[in-house]
Structure formats: C-alpha cells, structure tokens
Specification:
The protein has 340 residues and is mostly helical. It has helices spanning 27-35, 40-53, 57-65, 68-75, 81-94, 98-106, 109-114, 122-135, 139-147, 151-157, 163-179, 182-186, 189-196, 202-215, 219-227, 231-237, 243-256, 260-268, 272-278, 284-298, 301-307, 311-317, 323-336. Helix 4 runs antiparallel to helix 5 and helix 14 (202-215) runs parallel beside helix 17.
C-alpha cells in the first residue's frame, strides 16, 4: 500500500516574492494594509502584487478609492531601494489609465514623485519619468507638471541623464511645452535642445526636434531658435537618414520661419532644396511640415522667386491622399503665385 507524502516543492505558479492576494473585494484593502506594514519583506511583496493588479483600470479605481495612493506616496521616501523602485513602477502603471492620471492630480502625486528626481537608482528615476510621460499625454496632466514648477528641473536633468531617460524627458517636455513654454525658455532649454539635435542617437534627434516644435510656438521661442543658430542644424537634419527626424526638423522650421529673421536664416543656408525633396517623402507628416515651412519661406520675395519654378510639385500635392497635405499645398500655391 502506497504511503502519503507531502511534497517539499512549492505549488505550481506560486511566486514566493509576491504577497498572497486575498479573495474578491478584500484583495486591495489587504494589500493596502501590507503597504503600511513595518516588516520590509511584507511591503516588498505587496508592491510586487500591486504591479500585476494595476494593469486593470477597475483595480486602479478601487485602489485610489481605498487610499492606496497615500500609502504609495509614503513609500516613495522609503530607505529601501527596491521599495522605491517598485513603488514608482506601480505608479507608472497606474498612470497608463485615465482614472490613474486623474488620481495623480487629485492626490498631489506629482509633487511626491518630484522628491525622487535625483534618486541614486536609475531604475527608480526611469519609472518616475515614465509616469510623467504618461501623465503628460493629457492636457490636464501636462499642465499639472507645469504648475508644479518642475520644468526647470526637467530641463536641467536633460543634460545629465542617460539616453533612455533622456528620451522619456523629451517626450514629457514636448507635451508640457505645448501647454506653456515660458519656464522652459527661461531655463535655457533651446541651447540644451540644440545640443540634443547633434546626438548620435536618431531617437534623441527626433524627439529633440519634436520638442523644438512645441517650444517655438510662442514668439519668444521663435526668437531664441534664431538667436542660438538652431536653424542651420535643423536644415541639416532635413537630410537625415531617419524620416521621423526629417519630419520633425521640418516642423520646427515651420514654426521658426514665421519671423522675418527666421525666414532669411533658413534661406541663407539653402533650406528650400531639402524641403522640396521632402515633398515626395513617404511620411505624410514630413510632406505636411515641409509644405508649411516652404509656405513660410515663400512669404519672403527671395523665397517666392526660388519656389516659382516648382509650382508643378505643389500641384501634385493637391491630389495627395491626406486632406491636410492637400490644404497645405493649396495655401502654398496661393502664396507662391501671389503678385503685388
């Protein structure tokens, strides 16, 4: 007759580093209690479990309602590195949901996260900036970051973080500067972005050019782009090997050439040639931005004279599959063919 034996192995699919999740509606309240526990291992296991649960927006809603955000804010100051890393991970997962972003704004999570901008652990900072990037995707979130006074710090950090984090910072800044670029302009963001345009990493070049589009919307931004000699670099990027870089460089030129100084700075470095080449790009955004930038240059007599021999190219764009490109081509033709 066989003897009954108790296995020495753990049951299958059991993670010993994660807290056991209570059944039903008791799950999140129990984890919230464990987040406040004195025992370090208990806090770590609770955070591991929350990382899994926060992918569901219903769980995010419940977590916010029972006060998990306040517990997580307290853990951001924990002395244990793993606790801070997993806390920021939970928060950035929550920020992927609209209900989570609303919770951030209602419970002042932005200010709590700002204390970790100089955390010694890069994983913690990466999670923090990922949370900010997700939050900035909605206008209220971007404005919340601006109103928290963090823009000068984010601009300063752009010079000191590793490339993976720089990409997150540039995404966040681009969204925030669309709402208000005042603090960034006062923090010498344009010279810093100019340096990023020269990066060997095409992703950084693309995101830096995209951020320049946002910062050059206000007049002061246009003036600074011209004053800091960014326009020749943007024209050079029109011939970049990456189409996304070309498109964003054309977009930045579109804004920078609104001013008379910007127009002539671009004409001096022969911007019309590479912009005309972009009119045949496969990326509709590149064609659109190039059309608008050429329209700006055509407002100068010298630019109009250069473009009059390329009217046929714009006629072709009037039949483009993109309605936005069609309208841009029609406006460009009106400016180019205008006679005093």
């Amino acid at each position: 007759m066989a003897d009954a034996r108790i296995s020495t192995y753990l049951p299958p699919n059991v993670n010993p580093a994660q807290a056991a999740i209570a059944y039903g509606c008791r799950a999140l309240p129990k984890l919230n209690e464990e987040l406040q526990a004195d025992d370090l291992l208990t806090r770590q296991k609770a955070l591991m479990a929350l990382c899994d649960l926060m992918h569901d927006p219903e769980h995010v809603y419940t977590a916010i309602r029972i006060g998990c955000l306040e517990s997580l804010k307290a853990l951001l100051r924990d002395t244990n590195d793993l606790v801070r890393i997993k806390t920021t991970e939970v928060l950035y997962i929550m920020a992927t949901h609209n209900v989570g972003r609303e919770g951030f704004l209602e419970h002042s999570v932005i200010q709590a996260l700002s204390f970790l901008l100089s955390d010694p652990r890069s994983a913690c900072r990466e999670n923090l900036y990922t949370a900010f990037r997700h939050l900035a995707q909605v206008p209220a979130g971007a404005l919340g970051i601006v109103n928290s006074g963090l823009i000068p710090s984010l601009v300063w950090k752009l010079q000191r973080e590793e490339e993976e984090i720089q990409a997150l910072l540039l995404d966040t800044l681009a969204a925030c500067l669309t709402e208000d670029a005042t603090e960034a302009l006062a923090s010498r963001a344009v010279p810093f972005l100019k340096e990023k345009l020269l990066s060997a990493n095409s992703n950084i070049r693309s995101k830096a050019a995209h951020t320049l589009i946002a910062i050059s919307v206000p007049l002061e931004g246009k003036i600074q782009v011209w004053q800091h000699d960014v326009i020749p670099i943007l024209v050079h990027l029109l011939k970049d090997e990456e189409e996304e870089v070309q498109a964003n460089a054309a977009g930045a030129l579109m804004n920078a050439t609104v001013t008379t100084e910007g127009k002539y700075a671009a004409l001096d470095v022969e911007a019309t040639g590479p912009l005309l080449q972009l009119l045949g790009a496969s990326l509709s955004k590149a064609r659109l931005n190039a059309s608008k930038a050429l329209t700006m240059l055509a407002e100068a007599p010298e630019g109009r004279k250069l473009l009059q021999s390329h009217v046929a190219t714009f006629r072709v764009l009037e039949e483009d599959f993109s309605p936005a490109v069609q309208r841009a081509a029609q406006i460009a033709l009106k400016v180019i063919e205008w006679k005093p």
